Amino acid sequence: MSDPPRILPVIQPGAGNGSPPLFDKVAIVGLGLIGGSIALAVRQIWPSALVIGVDRKDVLEKAMVLHAIDVAAEDPVVMAEADLVILAAPVEQNINMLAELDQHVTTPAVVTDVGSTKRTTVEAARPLPSRFTFVGGHPLGGAPRGGIEHARPDLFEKRPWLFTPDGEGASSTLERLCGFASALGAEPHIMAPAEHDRLLALVSHLPQLTASALMHVVGSGAGERGLALTGRGLFDSTRLASSPADIWRDICRSNADAIGDALDLLIDELRVLRQDLDSTTEVDRVFESAGEWRARLAKLRPPRRDP
User: Fold this and answer.
1) 256-275 and 206-227 helices, crossing angle to 10°
2) Nearest alpha carbon to residue 33 among 123, 122, 151
3) CB burial class (10 A; 0-12, 13-18, 19+) of residue 197?
């Protein structure tokens, strides 16, 4: 006989603007930086909504101290009557939860996720019972450090929140989710799962792997003595190298083909530069192109100052 679910005390909702919630009972599975920030934002914007957190006991205790959730439990059975389920764990854990969702949620519910890849998750959601409506999601809010302790309700302010509907059957649900993201300050965008994975391989996954590989090579080659002599450039360009590997293992596995294509493009450019160090023709080409694209990026997405 299995142990009874471990449910932690209920926290009373705080004050808010009193607007009616888009979803009355929001269950969030995984209370890291993204899941925790969603929880904080929902409680701030819709204090009458019930926010249910599912995670490990130590994470739940931190979330309770932050008043991020109303109900906390390690067992997903606590989500039984949720009308919105947000899967905010690493990609493969989200996929595993999709396979178990029918056992835990007994009422009709909208289901979404926040994973950095979409094709494998969308495919895993297709066998869900008809009472569930799944739309893949990916908020592009982030911070230098992860974990519930760094969550903040304004994390998604003026940041893209991508949705990847699978077919035409979820239009009303998609509209509600776009409204949900907008209420959290985000800018909803809609695209196909495959296009999401191709683009994210270039604009997110490749920069992460490049920064991590760069820091590995520089650190291993220069050692602490060499690193002590570096300027701000290395520190700024390797900020992403602090990211934990556990999340990125899932991303690499679930988007290996698109990430591989992106890596090949970078490797080809590095090979060209390697072969042209004496004449510098290719060096000029790459630097000029990089400068132009960096200026466009700065206009499109001005740098945000995180606390």
Assistant:
1) 50
2) 151
3) buried
CB 143, CB 150: distance < 8 Å: yes
Q: Which helix (H) or strand (E) holds 163?
A: strand 160-164
Specify the pLDDT at position 1.
39
Q: Is 164 helix (H, G, I), strand (E, B) or coil?
A: strand
246 CB-near residues (< 8 Å, 6+ apart): 90
- What domains lie within the chain, and their CATH numbers? 7-191 (3.40.50.720), 196-300 (1.10.3660.10)
Where is mean pLDDT largest: 143-152, 164-173, 288-297? 288-297
Candidates 265, 146, 294; CA nearest to 198 is: 265
Cβ contact 122:151 at 8 Å: no
| Average pLDDT taken over every residue of the chain | 91
Cβ distance 82 to 26 under 8 Å? yes
